[in-house]
């Protein structure tokens, strides 16, 4: 959340419109900073920054819709929307682009001022890319346990990593850095659901339905998402309602996350005392961008089931994916099993959020599983039983 003091500072950033005799300055905690040099110069920079971000969208082809193999006689098709093919390798590329356009058009992102984000990794990678694209510094505030590969990618794109020992402290640390540097705290957890145009404009929901047009079940029975900010599930659900589809939206939540508990109890203030082991999803509080009233169902997914699912995905289609993909895939497979049991046909869609090579030392490491005390064998057996017999074991 952006603190009141930060809003006051933003108001002080209003460009000087009269002839400038000497460069006006503003004082913030940690130093004194020049106000942007002139209205005309700032507007010229702004137009060019927005053009660059929009040009990135024009250069980016749509992501693929992959089929997960299921027995033909079931009459059920399972798809994964492969978001790992974005320029920064994850679903968060869409979010980062939207957040940068939102921040630029609101006048929050300014030339020479850093953008700061609280992130467990993938959002920070994508935001570092867009910060470099428009020429502003970027600082990622992240848990110390974030995968080294994600840290390397942030630095590759010109960003800097600022680590915290407790993931619950990322918000305060990000706001403090913004105040100290005169920068903008992007705050994906507040703005994700409003920065994206959920009515269409080539968002992920519109893309899924367009790609399904020639399939045998073009209107999916279910779309399964996972929640980090909650922005993707909000976009999917709002679009479905807006377009008057019968598709239902399910959100899969990992261990050590509050979205499921908040949704089932109706308590927006629910918290938990540990961070999620599944990077990119799961939060210790109900984030402002999560819209519980828009979705139809939630599932709580054990972390061992998540790992079993990403390994089953590799065995099925030869693709390694990150943990968040496994959380969604596990829930999608359970929905498939329910449809088989009830004799229903149709399609189910979930997301391939990012590539597995960012997590080789975690979800694909037996040593990490042993260290975490995770036994994936029962969950691997459950997936195998479903795919061989059509029955989900009790």
Word description of this protein:
The protein is of the alpha/beta class and 394 residues long. It folds into two domains: 149 residues, Rossmann fold; 212 residues, Rossmann fold (3-Layer(aba) Sandwich). The chain is built from 14 helices and twelve strands. Strands 3-4-12-9-10-11 form a six-stranded mixed beta sheet, with helices on both faces. The N terminus is likely disordered.
Number of domains: 2
Helical content class: 40-55%
Strand portion? 15-25%
Rg result: 22 Å
The major pleated sheet works out as: 6 strands, mixed
Please specify the SSE layout and strand pairing:
Layout: H1 4-12, E1 25-28, E2 31-34, H2 39-59, E3 65-68, E4 76-82, H3 92-105, E5 115-118, H4 122-134, E6 138-143, H5 148-156, E7 160-164, H6 170-181, E8 184-185, H7 188-195, H8 204-211, E9 222-226, H9 231-242, E10 248-254, H10 259-265, E11 297-301, H11 303-317, H12 323-342, E12 346-352, H13 366-372, H14 377-389
Parallel strand pairs: 4-12, 5-6, 5-8, 6-7, 9-10, 9-12, 10-11
Antiparallel strand pairs: 1-2, 3-4
Helix pairs in contact: 2-3, 3-4, 3-7, 4-5, 7-9, 11-12, 11-14
Key words describing this protein structure:
394 residues; alpha/beta; Rossmann fold; 2 domains; 6-stranded mixed beta sheet; 4-stranded parallel beta sheet; 14 helices; 43% helix; globular; disordered N terminus; TrpB-like_PALP; EC 4.4.1.1; Cys_Synth/Cystath_Beta-Synth; lyase
């Amino acid at each position: 959340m952006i603190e009141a003091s930060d809003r006051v500072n933003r108001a002080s950033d209003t460009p000087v419109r009269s002839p400038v005799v000497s460069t006006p300055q503003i004082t913030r905690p940690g130093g004194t900073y020049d106000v942007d040099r002139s209205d005309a110069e700032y507007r010229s920079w702004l137009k060019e920054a927005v053009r660059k971000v929009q040009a990135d969208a024009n250069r980016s082809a749509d992501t693929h819709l992959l089929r997960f193999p299921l027995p033909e006689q079931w009459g059920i098709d399972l798809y994964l929307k492969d978001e790992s093919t974005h320029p920064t390798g994850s679903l968060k590329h869409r979010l980062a682009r939207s957040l940068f356009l939102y921040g630029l058009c609101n006048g929050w992102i300014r030339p020479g001022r850093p953008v700061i984000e609280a992130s467990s990794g993938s959002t920070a990678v994508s935001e570092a890319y867009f910060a470099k694209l428009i020429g502003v510094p970027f600082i990622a505030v992240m848990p110390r346990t974030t995968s080294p590969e994600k840290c390397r990618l942030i630095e590759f794109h010109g960003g800097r990593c600022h680590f915290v020992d407790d993931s619950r402290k990322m918000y305060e640390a990000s706001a403090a850095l913004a105040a100290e540097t005169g920068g903008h705290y992007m705050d994906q957890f507040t703005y994700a659901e409003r920065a994206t145009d959920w009515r269409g404009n080539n968002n992920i929901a519109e893309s899924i339905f367009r790609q399904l047009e020639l399939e045998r079940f073009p209107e999916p029975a279910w779309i399964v998402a996972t929640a980090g900010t909650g922005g993707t599930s909000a976009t999917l659900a709002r679009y479905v309602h807006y377009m008057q589809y019968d598709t239902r939206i399910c959100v899969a939540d990992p261990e050590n996350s509050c979205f499921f508990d908040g949704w089932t109890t109706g308590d927006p203030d629910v918290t938990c005392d540990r961070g999620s082991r599944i990077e990119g999803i799961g939060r210790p509080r109900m984030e402002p961008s999560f819209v519980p009233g828009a979705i139809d169902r939630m599932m709580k997914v054990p972390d061992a089931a998540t790992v079993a699912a990403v390994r089953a995905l590799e065995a099925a289609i030869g693709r390694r994916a990150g943990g968040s993909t496994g959380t969604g895939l596990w829930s999608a497979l359970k929905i498939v099993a329910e449809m088989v049991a009830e004799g229903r046909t149709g399609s189910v869609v979930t997301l391939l959020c990012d590539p597995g090579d960012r997590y080789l030392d975690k979800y694909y490491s037996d040593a990490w599983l042993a260290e975490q005390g995770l036994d994936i064998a029962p969950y691997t057996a459950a997936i195998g039983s479903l795919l061989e017999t059509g029955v989900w074991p009790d």
